[in-house]
Structure formats: structure tokens, C-alpha cells
Specification:
The protein has helices at residues 28-35, 50-53, 98-102, 122-134, 153-166, 178-188, 203-211, 214-223, 245-257, 275-281, 299-305, 320-327, 341-344, 359-369, 373-387, 392-407, and strands spanning 14-20, 40-46, 55-57, 62-64, 75-78, 81-83, 94-95, 113-117, 138-141, 172-173, 232-236, 265-269, 288-292, 308-311, 332-335, 351-354. By secondary structure, it is α/β, with parallel strands linked by helices.
Length: 412
């Protein structure tokens, strides 16, 4: 006998469907962790498999094949394909049969709750409408924030009207942090149900690899000709205009002009459209090293090598690379346009937050962090302690609270 809407399955486990565009390297460890919950029966429904086939990342500008398992440890399916361009957009991927997948053959709901990642795509809206038609409560998680790209008053009015309608199809939101929570409160209302499911990485994984990276660190020193005793400033991200590695280069130039002894290195990890411009900008700076694209498992050695990690981006709704650096005990300096800053960084403790685009303030933050090896090390330890409170266990707590609220059948 099939369970009626609102009831748990005969196994006593809450049936949770998660609809997302494709397997994502940051999400796979969290999905594995959710699948370990004894009373949650998770099924992940992907729209595309392009990320496991290998693809050209437009941001990095290189062919990418992730070196961590993306499908292991949880149940997943690929929805029938209607359109798949091998990349992400509002109209790709588009899947067929989402409504059919969410219901049983007798028309009853096949799941007790639906979790959707994002709302600005055909697939996400299709899933939300299908769940609403079946009476399945929808949990919505996305990276959106109010410090958005500039839009005309007309576009903002259209967006506001759209979200006012969307609100009625959502049972609760799962904010990734405080700035995302402010976004949902602005558009859905202060009284709309929210359950914090922090944007997190596998902290233990990055800490473990960093702790075991002694040999790898020495290899990197040799590979990039880095003299021991000189501080290392690290940038690791896509080399795109909005990431503003150029601001970091200018701050580095200022730091060298201050005659700090010993003078630091600047190590730039990543690839992308701005690489040639950055290399030209750095031509007269002998302390700059370009490491190119590095896969996720290689990054902890870079974090352990560095004395500070910097993300000077404009329009960065979160920046999970910040979590990774902190888990590896590396202090972080981020701009005010990096969404993770308010939740993870206190000035002078785990690092610094500087006004986006303010090269002088970035220079000062670098100088303070690199004041001595002891200063950097203390900030790195504080970063590791802070990120320990922002991980998968907090995600599980928030998700369970949301499911308990929306289904009334699961204990928090």
C-alpha cells in the first residue's frame, strides 16, 4: 500500500528528492553525509552528466575532469534529457518527466519533500510546479544575495513580482549564510520560514590533506623556486575580471614598495581569460609565480604553503574556496563583495575583510597579516577553529529542522 501525502514510507524513512543541474564537486561530500542519516531516504535527480564526462570550464578556460568521486555514497539518477548544451544556463539542462518521477504509478507522491537547488532555470521551476501539483513541500536553496549585479528598475520590478509568485510554491528556504538569508527575507518576507544550511565544504578532508602535505609543500617550493623564510601570498580561483586578481597584484606591488623584509611571494593558482593580462601586469615583479589550474585535491598543499589566502572578488555570493583555505589553517583576506565574509571572518582574527576595490586597504590587510610568522600562524589557527563550526553537521541540523517543519514527520 502506497503512503498518502504527508505520511512516511513503510520503512519509516522520510523520502527526500533533490533536484539539481549536474553532479557538483562541492556538493558530493554533503550528499554522502545526508545519505548516512538513518531516517532520510535521499534520491538525487540530476539534469545532466556533463561534469563527470569532462568538460571545458568557461571560467578556467581549460578542460576539467574532477579528481574526487562525484556519484559515490548516495543514490542518484539522471533525468531523461530534452536539452543539454554541456553547460549551465536558464534553459540547459532541460529534463523530461520530472512530474512522472515525483509520483508513483497510482498517482500518489513518491517523495515526502523536494529540495531544489536554485530557481532561475526551467528544470528548477518544472520541479517546483510538479511538486506543488502533487502536494509535496518544496525546500529552496540558492546562492542569491541582495548585492547583485546592477539591474534597471524595470528588471527589478519584474524580479520582485516573479519572486512574489514563487513564494507561494515554496515551503521553506535553506539559506547558505547571513547575506543569503537577508535576500530571502527581502523578497519572501521576514516571517517566511528559513533554516540555515551553511555553505560548507568537507572540512575534515581539507584539514587532513593539509596536515599530510609536508612533502608536497617542499615539492611546490622547489617547483616554483620559493626561498624558505619568505612569506607567500596565495590567490586560487578562476582568472576572470570579476575575481580581481589585478587588485591583489597592485597591492602586492605596494607591499614590495614598502621595503618589507623579507619580501613576500605572490602565488597565483588558476587559469582563465585574464591570465595573459595578469602575466603582463606582473612582468616586472620577479616574486610572482603562476601555477595554472589545480584540481581540488592539490589545493590543501598550496594552502599549507601559503601565509595568507586572498579573494578580492566583486560579486562573489559566497566563495567556497575561503572555507577550504580556513579548513587548512590558512588566514584569509576577502573583499566586502565576498558573501562568506560576514559569517566566517572577523577583522584581525581569522583574517580581514576590506572594501571591494580598495587596493590601499588590501595592502594594509596584507601588511598586518604578514607582520610576523607568528601573526599569520595565529590567524590560521583561528580560521581552522572558526570553520569547524560551519560544516556538514550544521547542514544536517538545518536540513532536519526544515524537514521536520515542512513534513511534520521527522524529528529535528
Amino acid at each position: 500500500m502506497k503512503p498518502t501525502p504527508g505520511e512516511l514510507s513503510s520503512t519509516g524513512r522520510l523520502r527526500l528528492a533533490y533536484v539539481v543541474s549536474h553532479p557538483i564537486q562541492y556538493q558530493a561530500p554533503l550528499l554522502r553525509r545526508i545519505a548516512q542519516e538513518p531516517d532520510i531516504d535521499l534520491t538525487v535527480l540530476f539534469g545532466s552528466d556533463f561534469s563527470i564526462r569532462g568538460y571545458k570550464d568557461e571560467g578556467f578556460g581549460v578542460e576539467v575532469t574532477w579528481d574526487i568521486p562525484l556519484l559515490d555514497g548516495y543514490r542518484s539518477e539522471f533525468l531523461p534529457n530534452l536539452r543539454d548544451t554541456g553547460g549551465l544556463s536558464a534553459t540547459s539542462p532541460i529534463s523530461r518527466g520530472i512530474l512522472k518521477r515525483l509520483r508513483n504509478s497510482d498517482g500518489t507522491p513518491a517523495f515526502d519533500a523536494l529540495w531544489v537547488h536554485g530557481y532561475a532555470s526551467v528544470n528548477a521551476l518544472h520541479a517546483i510546479l510538479a511538486a506543488n501539483a502533487l502536494g509535496i513541500p518544496v525546500l529552496l536553496r540558492a546562492e542569491s544575495w541582495l548585492a547583485d549585479r546592477s539591474r534597471s528598475p524595470l528588471k527589478l520590478a519584474i524580479k520582485s513580482a516573479f519572486l512574489k509568485v514563487l513564494r507561494h510554491g515554496i515551503a521553506a528556504t535553506l539559506p547558505i549564510g547571513s547575506v543569503n538569508g537577508a535576500y530571502w527575507a527581502h523578497y519572501f518576507g521576514e516571517d517566511f520560514p528559513q533554516f540555515l544550511v551553511p555553505y560548507a565544504v568537507d572540512n575534515a578532508y581539507f584539514a587532513r590533506l593539509a596536515d599530510r602535505s609536508t612533502d608536497a609543500v617542499e615539492t611546490l617550493r622547489t617547483q616554483f623556486n620559493l626561498e624558505p623564510g619568505r612569506p607567500i601570498i596565495l590567490f586560487a580561483s578562476k582568472l576572470q575580471t570579476r575575481k580581481h586578481c589585478d587588485h591583489l597584484v597592485e597591492a602586492y606591488r605596494n607591499l614590495l614598495a614598502s621595503n618589507k623584509t623579507p619580501s613576500p611571494y605572490l602565488l597565483i593558482v588558476g587559469d582563465g581569460e585574464e591570465r595573459a593580462n595578469l602575466e603582463a601586469q606582473c612582468r616586472d615583479l620577479p616574486g610572482v609565480r603562476f601555477a595554472g589550474f589545480q584540481n581540488q585535491s592539490a589545493l590543501p598543499a598550496f594552502f599549507r604553503l601559503a601565509d595568507v589566502f586572498v579573494l578580492p572578488s566583486r560579486h562573489e555570493p559566497w566563495g567556497l574556496i575561503v572555507n577550504e583555505a580556513m579548513a587548512a589553517s590558512c588566514p584569509v583576506i576577502v573583499s566586502t563583495d565576498v558573501g562568506s565574509g560576514p559569517d566566517l571572518v572577523t577583522n584581525g582574527v581569522e583574517g580581514f575583510i576590506f572594501p571591494v576595490g580598495d587596493v590601499s586597504a588590501l595592502t594594509a590587510a596584507l601588511a598586518h597579516t604578514l607582520l610576523s610568522p607568528e601573526t599569520s600562524a595565529a590567524m590560521g589557527e583561528a580560521a581552522r577553529q572558526r570553520i569547524a563550526t560551519w560544516g556538514f553537521e550544521q547542514d544536517i541540523l538545518g536540513l532536519r529542522n526544515a524537514l521536520a517543519f515542512t513534513t511534520r514527520k521527522l524529528r529535528p
